[in-house]
Amino acid sequence: MSTEVRVPTLGESVTEATVATWFKQPGDAVAVDEMLCELETDKVTVEVPSPVAGTLGEIVAAEGETVGVDALLATISEGGEASASPAKKEAPAKAEAPAESGAASGGESVDVMVPTLGESVTEATVSTWFKKVGDAVAQDEMLCELETDKVSVEVPAPASGVLAEILAEEGSTVEASAKLAVISSGEGAAAKSGASEAPAAPSTKVGGKDVENAPSANKLMAEAGIDAAAVTGTGRDGRIMKEDVQKAIASGATAAKATPAPAAAAPRAPVPADDAAREERVKMTRLRQTIARRLKDAQNNAAILTTYNEVDMTEVMALRSQYKDEFEKKHGVRLGFMSFFTKACVHALREVPEVNAEIDGTDIVYKNFVHMGVAAGTPQGLVVPVIRDVDQKSFAEIEKEIGEKGRRARDGKLSMAEMQGGTFTISNGGVYGSLMSSPILNPPQSGILGMHKIQDRPMVVNGEIVIRPMMYLALSYDHRIVDGKGAVTFLVRVKEALEDPRRLLMDL
């Protein structure tokens, strides 16, 4: 029987797409969920998987054609029809040379795909391959490591066998669900391992001269006046995709092409030879590059303003000292300061909801819940795990979750879902000794509270000078949505709740 391959749902506002690349040709054998072709819309690139196993029959929509939603792309012959396909010229040769066919020896090819990266993450960089072509691999053995803008992701082997081909080399950028490598599994694995390095040669021969670029990429290059030679293609066989042109435009490829001289003048000031010999140049990790870009974007896109106050920590420290042993005995976790600050912020956010809101175009989106981001420093960089629905959690639940996510952040084991959806953030620079700072917003959030070092200072209380443990607080906020009055009110409410924790119980 024959199965139709149709254009999948592209999104509620997308009605058509362009066929960018066919990965298979008529007569090729295909497995279930194996990628057949790639479609380009004006927003995203969509890969079309095979709905069944069989043989690709007819390609109805050729590369470069524009197709609508649910349009017919191709047909697949299932079951016995696959072996009967006249296009498979290798079939008769199987009886003569069984050693060259993994299928004839009981083996098969297994694709290694990019795992799920998270709903807001569309690409990753291949940082390290732990195996080489021809190496034997066991199921679930780590093959490579990917870096996204938030976390590092290890890719395990989906099956045992021999690593036959690496499609994405170290340093290359891959999209979600892209193919990374091919594993020859089963009895045919050993036969394939000797010749596995041969197919790898074409992957390094990426000149791009004989490869047709994506139609949308050609159109965009023509509109922007960019020469194809100035764009690095990341598609199949070096094919230039729409995203490649957009990246080239963003990096100033147009200006570099028109006036190459300024590009040479861009490097830093000359360094004396004796100093240069003592320098060390290390490429920024993808995580660090993304942190830098997001922080700068936050400054460029939001009207960030910071307001300060100070809080007397006497009552919180006394309460913690009085109950910390009983608290740890009952709940199995230490009572720290973060749960007090989290509760105080939740209390203040209820009164000043715009600090817990975000801007979406010309709308303000108010959140009737609090997902608290808690910034944590790691050897790889700053990450912000999110404690969801913190407004409904107890002190013990908050302390347990903060402790657990902090440990996993330092070990690089946080998942993407655990760092998404925050509505407000707390950053504790005091653990490093910071006395005062102005934290930068974590977009699209509109507020972030900076905690600092607790330091004894002389304070005037009831007309007398006394020594009190004081902490400076800093609230950075987006002035587009939060007015000065709201920001100051929020910080005062946090201060009042910490200086008299009983207000939290009384909801005052």
UniProtKB/TrEMBL annotation:
GO cellular component: cytosol; oxoglutarate dehydrogenase complex
Chain ranges of the Lipoyl-binding domain: 2-77, 109-184
CDD domains: lipoyl_domain
Domain Peripheral subunit-binding (PSBD) stretches: 212-249
One matching Pfam family: E3_binding
Any GO MF annotation of the entry: dihydrolipoyllysine-residue succinyltransferase activity
Protein known as: Dihydrolipoyllysine-residue succinyltransferase component of 2-oxoglutarate dehydrogenase complex
Name of the gene encoding the protein in the UniProt record: odhB
